[in-house]
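Dear Dr. H.,

I hope your travels went smoothly. While you were away I took the liberty of generating a structure for the chain from your last submission, since the lab meeting agenda had it listed for discussion. I wanted you to have the full record in hand beforehand rather than looking at slides cold. The sequence, exactly as received, is reproduced here:
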Amino acid sequence: MTPDAAFSTGSLPPPARAAAWGEAVAAAYFPLDLAFADAPRFRGALARRGMGDVLVSRLRSAPLAYRRRPAHLCDGGEESFLLTAPRSAPVRFSQMGREVVCEPGGFLLERGAEPYEFSYDRPCDLIAVKIAGPALSARLPAPGRFCAVGFDGRRGVGALLLDVIRAAEARAAEMSAAAREAVGRQIVELFALAVESDGRGFESPASSVRAAHLARLSAAIARRLSEPDLGPEALAAACGVSKRYLHALCRADGFSVGERVREARLSAARKALSARGDGRSVAEVAYAVGFSDASAFARAYRARFGEAPSETRAAARGAPG
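The corresponding predicted structure, in token form, is as follows:
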């Protein structure tokens, strides 16, 4: 499936539906093992919309169980998380020794880099938001702490989050690429605010210390993005920790120091290139975020976002005001 795609088993002969559904789910989310309650009679529909670092999808299907096994973790893709919000039936999810039943009106977080089991024993309608790991970690350090925890989406920031996700899924076709990307960033921000207001995942003093260090690291990187040689030694000093501890801290969260710096540079560049009022050239933006070689920047940018920097700039300038 491309970022914008739709799939349904409706037009397929019954013997082909289970395999086709498995392929569609793997393309939209992660490779998984599927256990069908009634494979020949299975029906399902899946539609997905791309929104920058976020993919919003609507999934409707007959009862089903999904399992992500250790063997699936070798798929080699960038780490991602799934924010899942059931609409019509409860879902059961277990990961990292935790298990939760999430009712409609709630939401939960799944980590693609860890095995898990996910199921629903009634026909289900749900929305799943796939978020790039670096984008989520930049706003919410160590997001794995919040996996397999049920959050309330019926009031406060949680309710606003679900309102925005539902509206984004329904209205995505009417939005420009720049608008979609902005909405994607707001979804990440609202999710982080909802989690922070809940308080769970912050209970361990050790995890709180790690989160504080990671937050300081993100702030230090943001302040010094223009430095081409920004590395672990300077960042450890800025955070008041040893270089060894900094590397261990980042490994535990799944992203190296270098990967964090690179992601911050590319994200800052994309934000600048998407701003219609930013008159700098692509090369000037690249140098401003710490790339010393414009060609290397262009290659890294295309690998990360699937398009050239000039395409992002052109799309932003061509978007209606």
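Two observations you may find useful: The mean pLDDT is 88. The chain has two domains: 5-198, 205-318.

With kind regards,
E. W.
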